[in-house]
Amino acid sequence: MADDPHALFEAWLAEARASEPNDPDAMALATADADGRPSVRMVLLKGHDARGLAFYTNEGSRKGTDLATNPEAALLFHWKSLRRQVRAEGRIEPTSPAEADAYFATRSRDARLGAWASDQSRPLESREVFEARYRRLVAEHEGRDVTRPPYWRGYRLVPDRIEFWEDRPHRLHHRRLFTRSADGWTEGLLYP
Q1: Catalytic residues
Q2: Which residues contact 157 (CB under 8 A, 6 or more apart)?
Q3: What is the pLDDT confidence band of residue 154, given thresholds at 50, 70 and 90?
Q4: Count of CB atoms within 10 A of residue 168's CB?
Q5: Res. 183: pLDDT tops 90
Q6: Residue 179, C-beta contacts closer than 8 angstroms, at least 6 positions apart
Q7: Residue 159: which of 51, 80, 64, 21 has the closest Cα?
Q8: Contacts of 57 by beta carbon, 8 Å cutoff, 6+ apart
Q9: Residue 157's CB: how many other CB atoms inside 10 A?
Q10: Residues 6+ apart with CB under 8 A from 166
Q11: Are the CB atoms for 185 and 178 separated by under 8 Å?
Q12: Does position 1 have pLDDT exceeding 60, yes or no?
């Protein structure tokens, strides 16, 4: 069975991009704070390779503060149209500032300004306050480039476990588990 889990993930992701009606790159990100209180939310995969799976966010957000104190996380992709899931667990490492700058530059101007306008996960007095802040930043940046805020960064989950789950009749699902070892990856099956 010795497939490379990164190659298998790439093949499954390509199929999802061809069949999923919305956001095939969406993944649930589970974190826990210093006290072990869990939190989960949807984020978008913004890069993957043999190093891991990358996403970007405000380091002051709930997920950012969780990861600062407990740099372990889990990801889940659920592709309903394919009746498949991929779960990955491992440690979180920062992407390089150059990677974060490069990805930030690909975002729309409005999204880049939105990153500056948002104190992500903090209490908001009213929607009007946020929209006024955004409009002020649009005016301030007219004719100027919108660079990455210093608090907006990339994270990479470096998996030590990757599970590929496929729906099968009679709930006899097929589960392949790849576990990182000193020599690379080992593979086994799990009961459904």
Answers
A1: 171
A2: 52, 53, 54, 73, 75, 88, 90, 91, 92
A3: very high
A4: 12
A5: no
A6: 160, 161, 185, 186, 187, 188
A7: 51
A8: 43, 63, 64, 120, 152, 153, 155
A9: 26
A10: 83, 84, 173, 174, 175
A11: yes
A12: no
What SS3 string covers 85-130? EEEEEEEEEECCHHHHHHHHHHCCHHHHHHHHHCCCCCCCCCHHHH
Q: How do residues 71-119 score in pLDDT, each as one tens digit? A: 999 999 999 999 999 999 999 999 999 999 999 999 999 999 999 999 9
What whole-number distance in Å separates Cα of residue 111 and Cα of residue 61? 16
Q: Strand pairing partners for 58?
A: 152
Average pLDDT, the chain: 95
pLDDT, tens only, 37-53: 999 999 999 999 999 99
- pLDDT tens, position by position, 165-179: 999 999 999 999 999
Q: Report the run of H or E that residue 11 belongs to, with start and end.
A: helix 5-19
If one counts the domains in the chain, the total is 1
* Segments forming the whole domain that contains residue 181: 5-190
133 within 8 A of 120, measured Cβ to Cβ: no
CB 166 within 8 A of CB 173: yes
Burial class (CB in 10 A: 0-12, 13-18, 19+), 75: buried
pTM of the predicted protein model: 0.93
φ, ψ of residue 170 in degrees (nearest 5): 65, 25
